[in-house]
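[step 3/7] inverse_fold.run input=structure_tokens len=321
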């Protein structure tokens, strides 16, 4: 009994420390750019806009965490979002299904893409990076075919998820579902077990391949939700080819790095949400300074690598997948 209380107290202490570090990162990021550009950065209304923008990537990142915590990766994120958004838009407009077509089209397409990623990964037995890179090219081609090479525009009357409170409601629903899946289902339990030690998980009788596929399906469905927010916020989506969609991989992936870094504090999902907010503060900070895009990317990359390095402490003997 006393041991249980001690463990709970230790866990709460760890979570408090994790939240303190994250809030400090928010404050420091805001403070640096506010000092450098006091007139056009960091007002209360601007910070709300930064947070709203961060919710888009956070919605996909909380699902992608199920894949990354197992030590797998996905290079088809951008292609998934693009394809899902185009399919959802087509269902909503050309098939006159409205919001039902948008939501169902995006989520189902995202889940199917995740299923294909997981299926080919476990069947081909080659690294997930290689599998998803090859599949991304196929998804881009399919999106281009469905879109007919024309930009798909979501009508103004179907963009409720691109502004408050629609975007916040959808994001909160996604966060709650991710939290419940991770903490109260077999998927979450086995995800952590496989991520910790796949060999031991197999010996425990866990169908590792099944849950790897399920992880990709869950991740894909959440990227479908991200696609809803993306096309609603931007109002349109155009298909690209030649791996150009990979530019959309960066932000959700960096958010997941925050989740992995703060997993030791028992708060991966909150870390992803706040981490994406930090990323957006840095991004909009450089915009306020008028920095060239190339410089923004370089400095942002170094800043985020530094953040992850400082917040992640390697454990002796631990093997990183």
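[step 3/7] decode complete -> sequence:
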């Amino acid at each position: 009994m006393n041991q249980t209380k001690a463990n709970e107290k230790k866990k709460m202490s760890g979570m408090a420390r994790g939240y303190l570090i994250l809030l400090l990162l928010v404050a420091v990021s805001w403070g640096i750019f506010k000092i450098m550009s006091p007139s056009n950065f960091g007002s209360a209304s601007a910070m709300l806009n930064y947070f709203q923008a961060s919710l888009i990537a956070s919605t996909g990142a909380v699902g992608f965490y199920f894949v990354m915590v197992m030590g797998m990766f996905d290079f088809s994120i951008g292609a998934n979002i693009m394809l899902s958004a185009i399919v959802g838009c087509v269902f909503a407009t050309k098939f006159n299904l409205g919001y039902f077509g948008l939501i169902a089209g995006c989520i189902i397409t995202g889940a199917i893409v995740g299923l294909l990623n997981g299926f080919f990964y476990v069947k081909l037995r080659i690294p997930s990076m290689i599998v998803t890179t090859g599949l991304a090219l196929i998804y881009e081609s399919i999106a281009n075919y469905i879109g007919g090479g024309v930009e798909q525009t979501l009508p103004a009357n179907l963009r409720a998820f691109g502004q408050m409170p629609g975007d916040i409601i959808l994001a909160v629903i996604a966060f709650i579902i991710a939290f419940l899946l991770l903490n109260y289902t077999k998927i979450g339990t086995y995800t952590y077990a496989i991520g910790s030690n796949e060999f031991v998980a197999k010996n425990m009788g866990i169908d590792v391949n099944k849950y790897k596929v399920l992880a990709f399906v869950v991740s894909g469905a959440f990227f479908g939700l991200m696609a809803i927010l993306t096309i609603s916020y931007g109002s349109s989506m155009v298909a690209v080819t030649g791996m150009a969609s990979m530019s959309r991989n960066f932000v959700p992936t960096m958010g997941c790095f925050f989740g992995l870094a703060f997993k030791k504090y028992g708060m991966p999902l909150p870390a992803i949400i706040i981490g994406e907010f930090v990323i957006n503060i840095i991004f909009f900070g450089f915009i306020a300074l008028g920095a060239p895009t190339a410089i923004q990317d370089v400095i942002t990359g170094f800043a985020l690598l530094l953040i992850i390095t400082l917040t992640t402490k390697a454990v002796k003997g631990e093997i990183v997948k």
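[step 4/7] annotate
The chain is about 75% helix and 0% strand.
The domain at 17-308 is CATH 1.10.3470 (ABC transporter involved in vitamin B12 uptake, BtuC).
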